[in-house]
Amino acid sequence: MAECGASGSGSSGDSLDKSITLPPDEIFRNLENAKRFAIDIGGSLTKLAYYSTVQHKVAKVRSFDHSGKDTEQDHEPPYEISVQEEVTARLHFVKFENTYIEACLDFIKDHLVNTETKVIQATGGGAYKFKDLIEEKLQLKVDKEDVMTCLIKGCNFVLKNIPHEAFVYQKDADPEFRFQTNHPNIFPYLLVNIGSGVSIVKVETEDRFEWIGGSSIGGGTFWGLGALLTKTKKFDELLHLASKGQHTNVDMLVQDIYGGAHQTLGLSGNLIASSFGKSATADKEFSKEDMAKSLLHMISNDIGQLACLYARLHCLDRVYFGGFFIRGHPVTMRTITYSINFFSKGEVQALFLRHEGYLGAIGAFLKGAEQDNPNQYSWGENYAGSSGLMSSSPELCPTQRARSGTFDLLEMDRLERPLVSLPLLLDPPSYVPDTVDLTDDALARKYWLTCFEEALDGVVKRAVASQPGSVDAAERAEKFRQKYWNKLQTLRHQPFAYGTLTVRSLLDTREHCLNEFNFPDPYSKVKQKDNGVALKCFQRVVHSLDALGWEERQLALVKGLLAGNVFDWGAKAVSEVLESDPQFGFEEAKKKLQERPWLVDSYSRWLQRLKGPPHKCALIFADNSGVDVILGVFPFVRELLSRGTEVILACNSGPALNDVTHSEALLVAERVAAMDAVVRSALREERLLLVQTGSSSPCLDLSRLDKGLAVLVRERGADLVVIEGMGRAVHTNYHAALRCESLKLAVLKNSWLAERLGGRLFSVIFKYEVPAE
Amino acid sequence: MLKLVGGGGGQYWACSVTGTGLGGEGAVFEVARVGDPGKAGCVGPAWGCVGIPDSAPGAGMLQAGAAGPARGGQGAEEEGEPAGGGEERQPRHPPAPALRLLNRKPRGRSGEIKTTENDLQRGRLSRGPRSAPPALGMGDHGGLPERSDPHAPGSPAVAGAVAVNGLLHNGFHPTPVQLPRLCGRGPAGVGDAGPPRLPLQPELQPQPPPPQHDSPAKKCRLRRRMDSGRKNRPPFPWFGMDIGGTLVKLVYFEPKDITAEEEQEEVENLKSIRKYLTSNTAYGKTGIRDVHLELKNLTMCGRKGNLHFIRFPSCAMHRFIQMGSEKNFSSLHTTLCATGGGAFKFEEDFRTIADLQLHKLDELDCLIQGLLYVDSVGFNGKPECYYFENPTNPELCQKKPYCLDNPYPMLLVNMGSGVSILAVYSKDNYKRVTGTSLGGGTFLGLCCLLTGCETFEEALEMAAKGDSTNVDKLVKDIYGGDYERFGLQGSAVASSFGNMMSKEKRDSISKEDLARATLVTITNNIGSIARMCALNENIDRVVFVGNFLRINMVSMKLLAYAMDFWSKGQLKALFLEHEGYFGAVGALLELFKMSDDQ
Q1: Any chain B CB within 8 A of the CB of A196?
Q2: Is the Cβ–Cβ distance between B459 and B442 less than 8 Å?
Q3: What percent of chain B has a predicted confidence (pLDDT) above 90?
Q4: Are A273 and B437 in contact (CB < 8 Å)?
Q5: 3-state secondary structure of B100
Q6: If you average pLDDT over every residue of chain A, what do you get?
Q7: How far apart are CA B49 and CA B54, in angstroms?
Q8: A495 secondary structure, DSSP code
Q9: What single string gives the DSSP state of each residue in A568-624?
Q10: CA A142 to each of CA A38, A120, A150: distance values in angstroms, whole numbers, following the listed order
Q11: Contact assessment for residue B281 and residue B291, using Cβ atoms and an 8 Å cutoff
């Protein structure tokens, strides 16, 4: 905690603002490395953006310098792990009330170490007003950027980089928020920005957009007219009034004109025929609430109608709404949605954005960072560092005064490589990675949140254990626990806080939180050991497979894939077994497997298919380290290679649980190659390629994959996709439709999920799919 | 301006019309508040209309009113209405007996033959506050004094005539403080003068005895048919009615080719309707005949006559129906063709209270048919349709006639309480494109809340004096000038009422500014939606109609400007003289169609 604005305490006025206690670690994070600044000052909120670098530890693996012979010895690990410092780029966005602006600027000045920055990009209506203050406080030159340009740049950015950025709002539905999966091509779209007036902009490409219309009836009309009618001064208070009012007392409805006959005429009697039509009388008093409600309806309907007319004229069916009139207010999102549905008869979709408030700041930042080419990268929302939608940052609450001011944060990590959609998806726009929407499914949500809560102790323990040399590991692990626990509590109350809540998002959030407290790879040692053990068994397993007849071998290979998959520290049931019985071996695992017929069993068709011509190229998404990848995946790969099928083996770019990472997989492949001629020659001849997925998640989003992978898939003409493991093939992608054959394999290592799917613990999913002609 | 200003008294026009016996209702008159020169009423006593100039002395008006009882012979009553607004007075005079006391004399169209009407007219004129046009505030089309119209029923004659028959002495009814009140007594054909009627509001009047039409139908109907001259013609009276959310629009066809025989045959209450409607320009506290809109010498359904345009607020509907009941309108066995939402809303009341079966009609059908009809017959030799030349140049902007002979396709924007937008491709091929709830009702509703005004006229008057740029936030208020990135002029409104977000600004603006801003906001919004619809429908002519445009030059010019400016001259805004009455005309046309169908 730091007392903010101490340096300015001598100056007069606003002493209250200056004495605000800011929790700097939590709000203006990574300020010491901050480089570029941008600021968007609106009517009531300021959004500050800066670019910074984050230094954190990563576990790197590399093979020992000496030749592979040593690894035959039991005591030697297959490769060495070194923890290194890595610097990654991160965008920080902080939103706060304008009243705090001076205090915040002081704070930034005091904590800003880097002085190379000379300019701050500014946008928003208040940029002019605060120009001098900013220049004086930060000693930066204010560079004004066009509001709409920034807004659109920001909008493009979030739509491209943040999954579940856009949502539709359904008032009486549960959940109220229905998030959209990102359209691979976000253009063209209509952006309706409802500030004091309304701007309607058609966005066609990254750089091309056109103001196609607008309306003077906007947020300012609601506010101004509302203030006149109700003597209520604040926008939020007006909205509050409106939410309590009955517009039918003020508006003339169809039924007021038609009487009861509207029903027989097929008219909806509740339609407003004339806004404020009943107030044309001197001898009646109208309540503030009713007038505010009527005004809200009038303005929302009008904007919705115009938006629909423009959408139709330009043949667009997606309309994103932004501006202070919308900004997360359920009441305005509701009325706008109603209006759009009404006027477009459902043909146009009203979409809102989770980070709508940040668009201007993001855009201004991007404008200033153009020379860094920010758009060539992919970015990912950091769940650990971002406040959720409609969240008042419960993590921060203890440090705040009773004042209404809250700080809202968004952090975006720059990803190493750009992400694209898998070219093999049947219909990219309709692809939804996640199998169960926990926002939607309250029962499942409850189960999984509890499940993650219960698993937290184990994760903390493992995190501490992974860094035996560290003095503060326990302390950091405790912080991690607190942070993740808080996130889970937030999600219990606001499941929509980070987009659609899924098992994937829960897992990803945990990874982000672990990284936050410098536990980059708690499983590195475990993986190292497992890989070592499994490598030792490789040749034996291969020999016994080779001894089998063709048909038997095919089944054994598949069983091997499945058995390997039982080795999964991510699953509670398994991690308990593993912890208690380290000798739990490959053969044991096989015994645990369900006997055929499996819960989902299309093995016969798969076998039939194998009797036919070989696949050209198989793309395999590997799951766990150790037994899974070495004794399950590699023999399977070897068989495919023998059939003349090329193989692309895709592993995670970064660590997640005990999942095999790309760099680990490279080392493992090298070791396997040393033992096996088929793999060796395939690697040499590039018939076996190891690529990274671009992900650091135990799950798999096929719409956000490493660009290199996508290119390779296209080049090699992949015609088979194998997805293995519960995280990738059940929690996600279970329903994914591909343009080529696919194999989804998993062992259900969670009894709740197994039950849900009609099976039991260790039930087997073997889903072989061939796309319809 | 045919401003209705109740001088007091609780007369309601609705009480005074269309009862079978055409009730006496002093309230027929609009009395200008003395000392309110801006709001001259148009006194329409008895058989004519006299616009009262600002300076019209109250006494004059009252005397004029006193002329009304000339119709006492038909059961006119009087009702006093002190000039300054005051309580009703008891009639001094027994209402004359039934209508048929009127002698039917052959009557030429020129009206040189003395008729009751003429006499009455004279009677009135002789003491009426002279016939200066009631022109205030009518915008371009100020009210025309009826007497200037040779075809107006009561008009031909020039004054001075003294009472000729028994009726006329009523015209000289001496009560200066009383206004005539027509009291339609019993059913048609009922003989003698009834007993004096109390000058109460009709709803308080004793129910007249049930008409003798216990033998309801055939005979009567037959005669009715003959009344209108041909079997396949509907019986008189011919009405078309459009009951909207705020206003009821009524058109009435007054046959002018009535033969002596017909006149003889004309039942009393029918006649009294005719006389009453055509001789007054204001009915009750709130009813108005838009004299300036009257279509003269029109042939409809084979009959020649004048088409009258009357409006009153929808809230008076119940009194209107009550009146219909009391005056036993149902005995006329006419079909009441009605459109607008109110046709549905009040259908039950019409039936149960007044024993009248409404013939309900689709309002959009009526609107289009009425519009096409009125445009085709023209406006007394002038074109019905007009536009504004040089709409973007205030200096050179002026009204010009427009020939709408080939109107299709057109976008028809009907601005009543709310707004409907139709794309019309041919006489009977159209679709409702959309509508908006931000219409005339919103303008008036908001103005009432913001400024405390009470009437449309008042609101417009304030708006005319205000400056909306004090209230609205302009592009230049935000960007310091034009917003070049988007090609927006600095003078464009960025946010309607946007300046009102600031308390200082709220404290510094006038009611007039607010009224103006409301008008501009609503108008521009309609323009904007209409323009988008025109683009979507690929139509370049936009016809604006509806009573929101009544006496509302500001909005018309704004719409003309908006269509032209934002479309870079591609769109043309067109307007029609009978802006709000097409639905009612369309309803009337349906009456003729019905008869054809029979």
Answers
A1: yes
A2: no
A3: 50
A4: yes
A5: helix
A6: 86
A7: 15
A8: T
A9: -TTSHHHHHHHHH-TT--HHHHHHHSPPSSPSEE-HHHHHHHHHSPPPSEEEEE--B
A10: 9, 5, 15
A11: yes
A&B contacts, CB < 8 Å? 203
Q: Alpha-carbon distance B203 to B97, whole Å?
A: 20
Side chain identity at B379, as an amino acid letter?
F
Cβ within 8 Å, pair B244-A254: no
Give the three-state DSSP class for A122: strand
Residue owning tokens 């209405």:
B81
Restricting to A residues 313-372, those with a Cβ less than 8 Å away from any Cβ of B are: 313, 343
User: Which residues have CB under 8 Å from B245's CB, separation 6+?
Assistant: A252, A256, A257, A273, A274, A277, B314, B341, B342, B416, B417, B418, B441
* HEC secondary structure over A655-681: CCCCECEHHHHHHHHHHHHHHCHHHHH
**Complex confidence, ipTM:** 0.82
Pairwise CA distance, residues A690 & A664, whole Å = 11
Q: Retrieve residue A562's tokens.
A: 């499945």
How does pLDDT run across A481-519, given as a tens digit for each residue?
999 999 999 899 888 889 899 999 999 999 999 998 989
Residue for token digits 């708690």?
A522
Measured CA to CA, the distance from residue A418 to residue A438 in angstroms comes to 28
In contact, A161 and A383? CB cutoff 8 Å: no
In B, minimum Cα distance to A238 occurs at: B501
Cβ proximity of B239 and B227 under 8 Å:
no
Our CA-based measurement puts residue A601 at a distance from the nearest CA of chain B, in whole angstroms, of 54
**Are A253 and A271 in contact, with CB atoms under 8 Å apart?**
yes
**Active-site choice (B363, B384, B458, B537):** B363
HEC string of A29-58 equals CCHHHCCCEEEEECCCEEEEEEEEEEEEEE
B442 touches A: beta carbon within 8 Å: yes
Q: At what angle do helices A288-313 and A330-344 cross, to 10 degrees?
A: 50
Other residues' Cβ atoms within 10 Å of the Cβ of residue B259: 12
Task: Report d(CA B385, CA B404) in Å as an integer.
Answer: 7
pTM beyond cutoff 0.80: no
φ and ψ of A199, to 5 deg: -115, 135
Interface contact B516, partner A, CB < 8 A: no
What is the average pLDDT score of chain B?
Answer: 71
| H or E segment and range at residue B65 | helix B58-67
d(CA A561, CA A555): 10
Q: What is the pLDDT of residues A407-461, one digit of tens each?
A: 888 999 988 888 999 999 999 988 999 999 998 889 999 999 999 999 999 999 9
Averaged pLDDT for residues B327-347: 88
A462/A482 Cα distance (integer angstroms): 16
| Structure-token pair, residue B410 | 């057109």
Residue that is written with structure tokens 């159209």 in the block: B430
Residue A107 or residue A399, greater confidence: A107
Residue B51 has pLDDT above 60, yes or no: no
Residue A361 in 3-state DSSP?
helix
Domain architecture of chain A: domains with CATH: 25-62+77-156+360-415 (3.30.420), 166-250+286-353 (3.30.420.40), 423-517 (1.20.1700.10), 523-769 (3.40.50.10880)
Tokens of A641: 């290679």
Dihedral sign from CA coordinates of A330, A331, A336, A342: positive
Count of CA atoms in the C-beta half-sphere (13 A) of A391: 30
Strand ranges for A267-377 from DSSP E: 272-274, 318-322, 349-353
Separation CA B56–CA B362 (nearest Å): 43
Nearest alpha carbon to residue A463 among A479, A451, A486: A479
